Amino acid sequence: MKMTDTTSCEWTVTGMDCASCAGKVRGAVERLPGVSHVDVALMAERLRLTLDETQTPRGGVEAAVQKLGFGIAPKGQVAPRKGFVLPGGAFPAQTPDADHAPDTTPPPVKTPDPAWHQTAKGRLVIGTGLLLVAAWAVKLLASPGIAQGAFVIATLIGIAPIARRAVNAARARMPFTIEMLMTIAATGALIIGAAEEAALVVFLFAVGEVLEGVAANKARDGIRALAQLVPKTALLDISGRTQEVPADSLTIGQTVLVRPGDRVPADGEVIAGVSGVDESPVTGESVPHLKEPGDPVYAGSINTEAALRVRVTKAAEDNTIARIVRLVEEAESARAPTERFIDRFSRIYMPAVVGVALLVAIVPPLAAAQPWDTWVYRALALLLIGCPCALVISVPASIASAHSAGARHGILMKGGAVIEAAARTTHVAFDKTGTLTVGRPRITDIVPVNGTEAEVLALAAGIEAGASHPLAQAILARAAADGIAPLPATAARALPGKGAEAMVDDALAWVGSPRFATASGVLDDTAQRRATTLEEDGKTVVAVFRKDQLIGLMALRDEPRPDAADAVRQLKSLDIKAVMLTGDNARTAAAISSTLGLDHRADLMPEDKVAAIRKMTDRGRVMMVGDGINDAPALAAAHVGVAMGSGTDVALETADAAMLRNRVSDVAGTIRLARATMANIRQNVTIALGLKGVFLITTILGLTGLWLAILADTGATVLVTLNALRLLTFDPDKQT
User: Is 278 a catalytic residue?
Assistant: First the structure.
């Protein structure tokens, strides 16, 4: 069996103004030999596929897309935005446009999108409009016969580029396109003598295409705005002297100077200076955060007070803003179940309407001796209703707007499927440490049993050295504050749900829960009573012990986040049940949960959390909220897994959603945004199908004609897109 080498390829495709455009690109390339796994993202203007270049070269893919009239260039290059040339050069494509004739030479730099009247589509609108006005003038000043000829000329010139696109699509085995239906309708209208109406329909179609392009660009502006948050230049610090360099040329380890009022040019760590930094461009949190040496800063955030020197820790393509943009763009590929259903439905809808139009054209004249011209005219009008553009765009336009709105408020949801699942949430399960609590516990009590406080702390710090868990960090911080050096340890490892162990002085030692210490046989009744007393005060107790010997106890307290109680209240107002799942002991869990006003499950091992989530999924739709590190199994078991974290790799790249502001109340905000998005989608589907249905009936009854039919098509698409754009202004924090 012959093995084939396949390559993952990606291009930027310009000119996709609606979902049918993306469908044309997909249909054209997926029929090529050696092409598989085709993914076309409308809002991200991206084409991605797997290609066997021994069967089809990359140039073959590009040619197939260009024949449909779209601009295309490999990822990283600027795709041409070319227009089309009409017969006789009436409207030359001398300015960039998002649609039509191929040009394989991309410009060296990206230029701003031109105004609508500078594009080829805009020129077509202006040109067809002038021709229509001229034809009306001829009608007023000349004989009806001459006026009829003027309308015919206006129609033919206007329909020519549309017909060319229809033919190219048909050659790619896609006969049912709006261009083909438009061409047939306009040509048929000319044949039956309705030239004036045909010219008007061509003009209205051109207007609709321009409006679709404007609306699509507006929908993309949210993603573009995110990408523009990172400054283009940076002040590179070289031996105390600064040099202005492109921000995307910075490498890990270099030092940059960030002056007051400047945007941070890269993800990094403060090495000198103290200043407030406004992280709202990244997390949506408007209150500046004080940054000192050792604190992280994110690209795109704004230095508000004093100069900072920052060591770069992430390359430009990996900074927080770049990852957010990438995730928002990638989310378009994770289509919602509703979108997949509508996509399947639309493939049936257009051929069905064409079939109905054919029956309308021939059945009444043949069966009831009705006038041919009347029913052919109605059939032509029906053809213009057959394009499902508005229906197909109804979901992705809303999803794209929701992603942009969420990203501006520090909420990332990875795709339409996640949004749809979040909207249906009935139960929310929270991890405790680092989620409902601040995640920065501090040691409140050290109870030595065999040794001194210093010895207990030194042994615990040695075992936990290098660990990242919040409790471990608290132990290490207390040791550093007290000037106590951790004992040398080797072979350290975490014991999930129990604690940690290491070799200290050639013998095993542990830091673990009282339950683990009891199971190990080192916690006597006196120590157990002392641990119980501490736990009843809402503290977390850990035992420090060696084999057959308890060294001491330590109690730590981690305060609830300031907004945790309000977040639980907001969830209740949304009729959502909340529960806390924790590996901590029952007494500490009860103290925290009673403060916040939610149920709790305590003493849970990681597998117990998964079991609890699965049990909850039997009763409803579950969202699990955790820190994205220790709760991975539970996050995966829930219908929606949400990671808390201010721009961390884990928070951005694991789970189904991420809360960048570390605010528990954003969980309710996420659900509000998801529900608003699904309501918007339902409105869009109603608009799309409602208008189509009304005009389908009125056209068959002869109440509406060609020009109203084209308004039903392009008008519905524009209305649906504009309705989706309303989500860009949605505020997830606003409670209704």
Answer: no
